[in-house]
């Protein structure tokens, strides 16, 4: 019966409304009327260190894995019940716990809405950006999904940090750079032509010269999409400057690999119809 009423609540509740809480409401005890309170109390106690010793060493990881589902069930109006537990998990000593949260933070942002995301999730997100690679990959894989939830001004702040994803704990971790290239293709839709030219272009060119071919092939696609985006922008100088730099940096490169890169980029631009043929010529 409790399960039926919970599912009925999820179905009927309006998850699209924004709401913010006053300090008085935030201080309320973790009481809600969606699920049996004893059940929620049991869930919240999963972060107790003694549980890891007596019940299961990975109980905090299980707690982190279930948190978005619990948040969805309770609704954003009851986020105050989970906020402390979330922050405790986000600073857990085990990287597996933090990694689990990093992979789901974009989903939690959708559940909580823009105000709670900006206030409560962005600080945690910023911490994950500086974490171990095993944690960083979680936020990197869904970077576009999370950044699109933020207001434009807040989103622009992350432009200055994107190049940090080029640096990894292990330089052989090429999949990290490949994922960065994939995400940058999606991020082109979130930023202006000037931001793309000033901040994303240098990263794209760096990825085009990567030692691993899989990273380079995704980067060719990234550059071609960048050309397409800048060509459609109101300021034509960006795409002209970009193409001139492609010629200078790769076509006239003293290494054969650089000249080969130029040919592959031209191939991708042509195949994807990123430019009119007269402009291409």
Automatic annotation (TrEMBL):
The keyword Lyase does not apply. Gene3D superfamilies: Leucine-rich Repeat Variant (1.25.10.10). This is PP4R1 phosphatase. It comes from Vireo altiloquus (Black-whiskered vireo). Keywords: Repeat. InterPro entries: ARM-like, ARM-type_fold, PP2A_Regulatory_Subunit_A. One of its GO terms (molecular function) is protein phosphatase regulator activity. GO terms for cellular component: cytoplasm.
């Amino acid at each position: 019966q409790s399960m039926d009423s919970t599912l009925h609540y999820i179905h009927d509740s309006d998850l699209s409304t924004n709401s913010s809480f006053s300090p008085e409401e935030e201080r309320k005890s973790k009481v809600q009327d969606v699920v049996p309170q004893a059940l929620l109390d049991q869930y919240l106690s999963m972060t107790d260190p003694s549980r890891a010793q007596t019940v299961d060493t990975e109980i905090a990881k299980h707690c982190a894995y279930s948190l978005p589902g619990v948040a969805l069930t309770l609704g954003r109006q009851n986020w105050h019940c989970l906020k402390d537990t979330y922050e405790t998990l986000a600073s857990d000593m085990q990287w597996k716990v933090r990694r689990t949260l990093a992979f789901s933070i974009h989903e939690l942002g959708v559940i909580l809405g823009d105000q709670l995301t900006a206030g409560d999730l962005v600080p945690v997100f910023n911490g994950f950006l500086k974490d171990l690679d095993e944690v960083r990959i979680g936020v990197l894989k869904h970077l576009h999904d999370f950044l699109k939830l933020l207001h434009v001004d807040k989103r622009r702040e992350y432009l200055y940090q994107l190049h940090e994803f080029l640096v990894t704990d292990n330089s052989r971790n090429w999949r990290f750079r490949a994922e960065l290239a994939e995400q940058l293709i999606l991020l082109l839709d979130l930023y202006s032509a000037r931001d793309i030219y000033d901040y994303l272009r240098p990263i794209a060119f760096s990825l085009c010269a990567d030692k691993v071919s899989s990273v380079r092939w995704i980067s060719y696609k990234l550059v071609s999409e960048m050309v397409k985006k800048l060509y459609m922008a109101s300021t034509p100088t960006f795409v002209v400057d970009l193409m001139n730099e492609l010629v200078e940096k790769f076509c006239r490169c003293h290494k054969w690999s650089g000249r080969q890169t130029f040919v592959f980029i031209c191939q991708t631009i042509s195949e994807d119809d990123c430019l009119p043929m007269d402009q291409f010529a």
